[in-house]
Amino acid sequence: MVGIGAVVIASVGGASAGVVAADPGAVVRTADSRPIVVIGASISTGYEVEGVVAYPRMISAIAGRSVYLSARSGAGYNDGAIAGLTRAAKIAERDPALVVVQAGSNDVGASTSAIDGQVRQVIATVRSQAPKAKVALITVFPSVHGSGPNARATEAAIVGAARAVDPSVSVISPLSEGWVYGTSSDGHPDAAAHQKLAERVAALA
Questions:
Q1: 98 and 37 in contact (C-beta within 8 Å)?
Q2: Ranges under pLDDT 50 in the chain
Q3: What distance in Å separates the CA atoms of residue 80 and residue 84, rounded to the nearest whole number?
Q4: What's the CA gap between 17 and 24, in Å, rounded?
């Protein structure tokens, strides 16, 4: 799957095609109308689900905000891809209320010291470009590369490094929280899991 670089994929008011329609009573609208920026890997691109139910699109319908996406299938912290996607997101120009970084599953088994350094770089970049934004991480999905010691070491490295830079970072961890969800043949989460992600993220905005 090709990368997606800093495009608005869901716009308040229906400017983007394919945006999920939400029950008007379920949309949370606040005085703060700043957008949400999502940086991530294949799960953020909507891999193995219909595009309209991919969680970044559903966030807009639930939270009543525009969502910008900078994502690429296969991206991880370890290889520097997430750092590159963070730069491509042009966060300072968006002035977001919330920045979400979804990564970790592709890093399982990689050097935790390398992951640590890359996560610190990503969070520092986000913080410098959006000092007033909330920051949230979506970490390891156990269905992608397992839930064993390597997955848990990766998870710990990501969360520890992020909170060393910014203790206020929120974490959504399907691994640590024991999520049970349907998957594709290669372990990517189903539409119901995307819905759950969207609800969790929207609640943070």
A1: yes
A2: 1-6, 8-27
A3: 6
A4: 18
